[in-house]
Amino acid sequence: MTRHDPDIMNLLASRPSLHMDAQDGLIFEGVPLQTIASQMGTPCWVMGAGTLRRRTRNLRKAFTERGLGMSIHYALKANDHLATLAVLRQEGCGADIVSGGELRRACQAGIHPGDIVFSGVGKTDAELNLALQEDIGQINVESAEELRRLSRLATAAGAVARVALRVNPHVDADTHDKISTGRLGDKFGIDWAEAPALYREGCALPGLEMIGLATHIGSQILTAAPFRAAYARIAEMVIGLRQEGLPVHAVDCGGGLGIRYRDELAPPPSILAGAIAETLGSLDLRLAIEPGRWIAAPAGVLLTSVIGLKAQREGISDFAIVDAAMNDLARPSLYDSWHGMIPLAPDLAYAETAPLSVVGPVCESSDVFARDRALPPLRPDDRIAILDTGAYGAVMSSTYNARPRAAQVMVENGAWEVITPRQRLESLWADDSIPEWLGAG
Hints:
- Pathway: Amino-acid biosynthesis; L-lysine biosynthesis via DAP pathway; L-lysine from DL-2,6-diaminopimelate: step 1/1.
- Its cofactor is pyridoxal 5'-phosphate.
- The chain is of the alpha/beta class.
- The protein folds into two domains: 8-48 and 300-428, Lyase, Ornithine Decarboxylase, Chain A, domain 1; 49-296, TIM Barrel (Alpha-Beta Barrel), CATH 3.20.20.10.
- The chain has helices at residues 8-13, 33-40, 49-65, 82-90, 100-108, 125-134, 144-157, 195-204, 224-243, 269-280, 293-296, 331-335, 346-349, and strands at residues 18-21, 25-28, 31-32, 44-48, 70-75, 94-97, 116-118, 138-141, 161-168, 190-191, 208-214, 250-252, 286-289, 300-310, 318-322, 341-343, 354-359, 368-375, 383-386, 407-412, 415-420.
- Strands 4, 14, 15, 16, 17, 18, 19, 20 and 21 form a nine-stranded mixed beta sheet that branches. Strands 5-6-7-8-9-11-12-13 form an eight-stranded parallel barrel, surrounded by five helices.
- It is globular.
- The N and C termini lie far apart (61 Å).
- The model is unreliable at 175-183 (pLDDT under 50).
């Protein structure tokens, strides 16, 4: 099936935080992005605090309307900037973390340890001891080895770990292979068939308080069916464990709700709320979710400038070479992901379009943001906003090719402030050292 890319007006219509002003160009939460680009330079990340708030409130409302009390643990891996976390803490979110560093970061942002859930397949002893020391709300255990190791560590520390078993329900989320996590053979979670026996074992181990189950089947899920199938299996397990007299008080439903990047029919949060209500809602459970992308992705844009144009032979799209690259935004090179692009200048918003490939300057053939994209006639120094980069954008960036990390800005209600300055070039080698035997010169 041929996919038709949305034009600039369509992109704007589906993104309420953005609009095109006839004089100031592209506006994000009341701030002209040309102003930020002129003062900060490019590439530059811009996060919208108001968008974070609006989406979090809409998500919570969907569960309230279904009569569900729902704890929201924001997934730090999507965007872990302290400013982002501060906004979401103000909105009543806890944190879903996958490393000791993320645990420290969540606490630094003022998130209460009791509102933190620790997920992930490779927790070290040091990380588990840190979680015990901070007395976090829940540890999602992903293997028999981890469960027994956590018991030993908790007993040695004189602590009690609150544990949920992350169950792999063998459900295909029908999403990109690299972001599917709940199928047979995926590295995440405990095999469905093995989970009941391990839960029984956990109830008998010292230092552990078994509180329930967790699951997460993948990311960028666009229909209700995979959620409903996974939660139905979890509900079945809850009932079975309780029939054995085992305590099951909570279910962590994970995240994964998709957004519209291109032409997807992005589901409203009501489909997730409905799937949970229909399968788990009558079981008297403490329920939680772990959204990341759904909250953060539409709240961010990446600003970049055209360095130059490179003409190609007839039948092949010309290249627009921009100053952002795959070291800034890795998703297109990792997943062939599609991100909308809107020029900042108002005269370009209504211009005729032609196929153009947008590429970065990094020395890799995969440093491509778009191929054959219908764009207006860009000129050197024209600026573009790459959309929906608030999740898995800056947090995944690197300094490959000795390119400093881009500056980050936050906007809200017409105001903006720098939240991370552009990395100084000299800092790239500030911690390097040369062995004495190589000499100083």
